[in-house]
Design goal:
alpha+beta, 3-methyladenine DNA Glycosylase, Chain A, globular, DNA-binding
DNA sequence: GGGACGATGTCCT
DNA sequence: GGACATCGTCCCC
């Protein structure tokens, strides 16, 4: 699992569909002789020109230009003077721009390096948040524009949901410019998500999530 | 050219 | 629950 990069056609579909299908896939960071990897458990979709919360909302300018280009590349940006966030460009052929923000991972490979990078031993907090996961995985602006469909310093490998896993749909986090659009998707019951739907930050004792939350159909991407 | 603020995380109370 | 770190962008002088 996670050794073959997803092909470009995976990303050439509706942004919301790609977002949901990215759950369970594996983000891989190769840095020198090190390999860091984590399973994607939480994402958010940003729909370009029709989405006031998207950096692409104001048009094809500056850093956002990338979201109007080739799908399957990564859009990295810097926020709050402290953190990097990583997105994947994904959109149907009709859409002008679109991207999926990676919000949380389940650490798989290189956990000790991630602990060092994050300065904490708590495995549930190493990669449970967009800023945390980039810190753990050593992702910054140098990787802006990296082609994630090629075996390289950063790519997304195959994988999928386990049969019992269900996708939960929720409002996006930290978004102030668009009304509450239910464009956040996470794996129900994962102990590695950032913010549980309708609650504050996730702590170990609040988990696992159980049924009763609004849900989207669980589905698998066919290789 | 400058000021406000953000797709956040951490520490403190 | 709230302050604040800290800087790239955007938007409006």
């Amino acid at each position: 699992m996670g050794t073959t990069p997803l092909p470009r056609i995976f990303y050439a579909r509706d942004t919301l569909e790609v977002a949901k299908d990215l759950l369970g896939k594996v983000l891989v960071r190769s840095a020198g002789d090190r390999k860091l990897a984590g399973r994607i458990v939480e994402v958010e979709a940003y729909k370009g020109l029709s989405d006031p919360a998207s950096h692409a909302y104001r048009g094809e300018n500056g850093r956002a230009r990338l979201m109007f280009g080739e799908v399957g590349r990564c859009y990295v940006y810097f926020v709050y003077g402290n953190h990097y966030c990583v997105n994947v460009v994904a959109k149907s052929s009709r859409a002008k721009a679109g991207a999926v923000l990676l919000r949380a991972l389940e650490p798989l490979t290189g956990v000790e390096v991630m602990r060092r990078n994050r300065g904490t031993e708590d495995k549930f907090r190493l990669t449970s948040g967009p800023g945390r996961l980039t810190r753990a995985m050593e992702i910054d602006l140098k990787l802006y524009g990296t082609d994630l469909t090629k075996l390289g310093s950063l790519y997304i490998g195959d994988g999928g949901l386990r049969p019992e896993e269900v996708i939960v749909t929720a409002a996006r986090v930290g978004v102030t410019r668009a009304g509450q659009r239910p464009w956040r998707f996470l794996i129900a019951g994962s102990e590695y998500v950032s913010v549980s739907p309708g609650q504050g930050a996730v702590s170990k004792t609040q988990l696992p999530l159980k049924a009763g939350l609004p849900q989207a159909k669980s589905r698998r991407y066919r290789q």
